[in-house]
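Incident log, structure service

09:12 report received: a user says their structure output differs between two submissions of the same chain.
09:20 pulled the input from the user's history:
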Amino acid sequence: MDKGVWTEFLEHNWQIVQDNWMYILIGLVLLLVILKIVRTLVKWLIVIVVIAGLLIYSGISFEQVGKVVTQAKDDAINKVQSEALNMMIKEGRDAQYTSNADGTFSVTSSNLEVKGPFDGDKVKVWFQGMSLGEWSMGDTVKKYIEGAKGSAVTQSPQSP
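09:34 re-ran on a clean worker, output below:
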């Protein structure tokens, strides 16, 4: 995660917290009381209203919150993609390559699945059952596919 985004966010908002600590404390106590007493959907509506009120009153803009959330999401996606690439390197030889009659192939291992057309430059990637979208055929992806081709018997849908 980008420490600069968090540092900027905290530096900007620390003064706001110092100025409004009493209101924030009252809001947090109110949230705890609501969570202990109310046990329905109304509880969560009240919690959302209180949190929104604290955010609006404290001066934290939704743009700042959006920036932090976007950065966290991007960092998470990059981490998952990096992990998937590392798995491709580790599991390339254990993967199973299958060529399909419709002009596509699939490569499957315990954690990864890659599907795409034979002559395409994009493949669809799934990591531990979660779709990671379409990826370009980079060196690591090509090595993963070639490793699977080299170690597994290619299944041909059309046998002569």
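09:41 both user submissions now match this output. Likely a transient worker issue. Closing.
09:42 reviewer note: Residues 93-151 form one domain. The two ends are 54 Å apart (CA to CA).
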